[in-house]
Amino acid sequence: MKRTFSTLLLLFAPIIFINCKTHTSIDSYMNELVAAGNFNGNVLVVKNGQTIYENSFGFSDGLKTTELTNQFRFDLGSVYKEFPAVSVMQLQEKGLLSTDDKINIYLTDLPNWSSKITIKNLLQYTSGLPKVAWDKYFDKNERVTDQKIKNDLLNLKKLEFEPGSDYLYTNYSPILLGQIVAKITKQPFPEYVKENLFIPFGLDNAKIESEVPNLNRDFMAIPFDENFKEDAHKATITGVIFRLTAKDLYNWLTHLHTFKVISKASLQFLSEEADFWGNIKAPLGGVKWKNGIVKEHYHHGEAGNYECIVKRFNNGKDVLTIIVQANQKRQNMFDISDEIKSIVKFK
Description:
The chain is an alpha+beta fold. The protein is about 30% helix and about 20% strand. The chain is built from eleven helices and ten strands. The strands form two sheets. A six-stranded antiparallel beta sheet has the order 2-1-10-9-8-7, with helices on both faces. Helix 3 runs parallel beside helix 7. The longest helix has 14 residues, at about 170-185. It is globular, with a radius of gyration of 20 Å. Residues about 1-20 have low confidence and may be disordered.
């Protein structure tokens, strides 16, 4: 059992009690946030298949000329990592790979350390691979590319730890998982996702972009800061930049949790967290099971000034899905989703 210094500080931090206002409706709560400048984005709340709240607030970009609607797509941040993980499980169900396979079986040009890492290590962030050095390029206003990321891996001499012995959340995991899917299926990872995850399950507006800033801004929520300055990071990367509407995310969660995308056993496997103490994430974020059903699934993501959260609750009788997407990050996604659940009085 390992405890990081930062985690121990949280354990002994003083508890601060906040006098929270009781809100009578989701709309009044959201409008209060917007009036205070604390939200710019879209919200979708669905209970038992019926939309009980859907609204858009604020602007689609830093120019403040176009208001958001429910047709706008947002970047998913870390939530996108569900898609390469689920793709891998689809291939395992077809007998095309095993999560116990070493990744050098498929990615043959990586250094020798790849012979120690399994697909399961990538899924559970126990590979020992370091974090992607995004800031090395962004701080110099350089464009991040597939080749630069690949070169960093090729030049990596030593892993952070022996695979399976510790946990480190790294974007190399989903990137390499997507490359494994592409290698096995002999098609670009974005094409596989479109054909096997987007089209069959009603993710009608979902797109996987190839670069940022976006060349095509049509119905694309553009991220900006508190001064409405748009994000300027530059990247050209394959199979990483996922953009979905709230409805796309709802359809994704609905089909995933009714075992139409992958089997129940595969979903349970992707719910497993690495066996280390601390801020550990499963491939699907956080998933809690009870009596054979997913009682709770939550996943938070951010990328630049994008931020989103998806939550799905199932108490055995009712199902509640909450999706909140923002293109002006305020670090309040958990607070918003928790308050919405409280207003709905979902137990």
